[in-house]
Amino acid sequence: MLTYLFTNIIMNPWHSISLGKNAPYIVNAIIEIQKGHKTKYELDKESGLLRLDRVLKTDLCYPFHYGFIPKTLGDDNDPLDILILCSEPLQPLSIVEARVLGGIYLIDNNERDDKIIGVAAQDPHLNHLQQLHDLSSETMALMTLFFEQYKKHENKIVEIKSFLSQEEAYQVIQDDFSAYQKNTLNN
User: Fold this and answer.
1) Which helix (H) or strand (E) element contains residue 123?
2) Domain locations along the chain
3) CB-neighbour burial class of residue 120 (10 A; exposed 0-12, middle 13-18, buried 19+)
4) How many CA atoms lie within 13 A of 59 on its CB side?
5) Percentage helix, strand, coil for the chain under 3-state DSSP, each rounded to 5
6) What are the DSSP calls for 27-87, one per residue?
7) Which of 2, 16, 36, 121 is buried most, with the most CB atoms less than 10 Å from its CB?
8) Looking at the annotation, which residues are catalytic?
9) CATH superfamily of 2-186
10) Most distant CA pair in the chain, distance
């Protein structure tokens, strides 16, 4: 009986949380990985819980919070990834309203794997970040270095094709929201 009650109250954040009332400009993001950690968690699509995927085989740690945008479906058949800048620690599975700055178009394992770049909308210390060009060259270089290196020890190649403007990132979010809706209707 307890198991039955427990399973009825579990929500799957991918399906149960909205994209956000101001999407695609400000989106809800679900945190999977905290800044400064080496543990790579992935959403377990069936349960909605986080599953340990791997521990990075590098000295690099995630230089930003990392998560996904609910009710989206990317070309890799996963929810759309988002990097979230915030001056404070964010807990896994927390919901964060993220102001979209831009994105990264990259190829991972021969598949397109877009990453949205956002900033925690409630963080007054980062209000000055409104677009991608507001990020320092050091932050941009750190993002590039991280994605070029984080799978190198697994003999996997990740290739950054380009950074996406704010408008391009909005379009990716809208396209991935449409793909999610289409996929949900077909299943």
Assistant:
1) none
2) 2-186
3) buried
4) 0
5) 30, 30, 40
6) EEEEEEE-TT--EEEEE-TTT-SEEEEEE-SSS---SSEEEEETT---TTSSPEEEEEE-S
7) 121
8) 62
9) Inorganic pyrophosphatase (3.90.80.10)
10) 56
Residue in this structure with the two tokens 């102001």, named with its chain if needed: 99
Tokens for 163? Answer: 């950074």
Decide the pairing of beta strands 95-108 and 115-120: antiparallel
Q: Per-residue pLDDT for the chain (187 aa), expressed as one digit of tens each?
A: 444 445 555 689 999 999 999 999 999 999 999 999 999 999 999 989 999 999 988 888 999 999 999 999 999 999 999 999 999 999 999 999 999 999 999 998 888 999 999 999 999 999 999 999 999 999 999 999 999 888 877 788 889 999 999 999 999 999 999 999 999 877 6
The tokens for 71 are 């009710």
For tokens 């770049």, the residue is: 117
What are the structure tokens assigned to 28, written together?
């809800």
Record the tokens describing residue 125, joined without a space. Answer: 């210390």
How are beta strands 95-108 and 26-33 bridged, if at all?
antiparallel
Instruction: Give the pTM.
Output: 0.92
Q: Which two tokens stand for residue 46?
A: 């069936």
